Amino acid sequence: MERIQIDAVQPTAYEAMFALEGYLAKSKLSTTHKNLIKIRASQINGCAFCIDMHSTEAVREGESPRRIYVLDGWRKTELFSEEEIAILKMTEELTVLDKNGLSEATYLEAIAHFDEETFSQIVMTIVTINAWNRIAIATHKPLP
Description:
This protein is mostly helical. Helices cover 69% and strands 0% of the residues. The protein has helices at 6-9, 11-25, 31-45, 48-60, 65-69, 82-95, 104-113, 116-139. The longest helix is centred in the C-terminal third of the chain and has 24 residues, at 116-139. The chain starts with 5 loop residues before the first helix and ends in a 5-residue tail after the last helix.
């Protein structure tokens, strides 16, 4: 059964989400950092639409397909920098909140790498992709 598509029924809601995207576009985060967050959160949430979209964007923007292929197993590789590892830990802990949210250890690791502004932008990127994942999953957003 085809589900209601919020972008068609409530375009103003999407405008609000795109305002968050506009904020993130102006953030200090690198394209790589944003892509890692978007892909990893989407993998955790099982959002095929977002995994497809953000993986395609990441490769188009210069990300190595190899790093995308192993992203789900990032803890078992040496392909990611210390900053990227801190971001991936934050992404996992803030996406799966029932495991106590952002741990003190991950918080301390993050603030050792990032200033307050960047830390805040990482959190907002994680929040935003999780919202998009929930919209796409709820509506069975079809792949383009």
